[in-house]
Amino acid sequence: CLWSNLAVFAPLSQEVMAPDLERFNSLEAHLPASCLEPCVICQTRPKNGCIVHGRTGHLMACYTCARKLKKRNKLCPVCRQPIQSVVLIYLS
């Protein structure tokens, strides 16, 4: 799951507009707790790299780590299926 750029890439400040903050809080309230945890590989970036295999995918890594797994011909860490592609996920 992807955290809003507001929360991940910049500290909250007085410059943040109230509607953006409200949208972020609303999104955060509706996501499963596992989506709010960081990438299971690097433990620093948000989960935004969906590992695709067949008609399904798993969202447990950031895009950077997911691409590295694909490039190194690794299997999906969740189900051990070959990784066909990696998709960058945006939530709004």
Describe the structure.
The structure is a single chain. By secondary structure, the chain is an alpha+beta fold. 33% of the residues lie in helices and 16% in strands. It is built from 4 helices and 3 strands, in the order H-H-H-E-E-H-E. The chain has helices at residues 5-8, 18-30, 33-36, 63-71, and strands at residues 49-53, 56-61, 85-88. The protein has a 3-stranded antiparallel sheet with strand order 2-1-3, with helices on one face. The radius of gyration is 14 Å and the shape is globular. This is E3 ubiquitin-protein ligase Mdm2. Its EC number is 2.3.2.27.
Helix content: 25-40%
Averaged pLDDT, please?
79
Q: What is the CA-atom radius of gyration, in angstroms?
A: 14 Å
Task: Give me the secondary-structure category.
Answer: alpha+beta
Would you identify the regions where 5 or more consecutive residues have pLDDT less than 50? Answer: 1-16
Number of strands: 3
Could you give the order of the helices and strands? HHHEEHE
- Coarse shape: globular
Work out the oligomeric state of the chains in this entry. Answer: single chain
Largest sheet: 3 strands, antiparallel
What is the end-to-end distance? Answer: 11 Å
Strand content: 15-25%
Number of helices: 4
Strand order of the largest sheet: 2-1-3
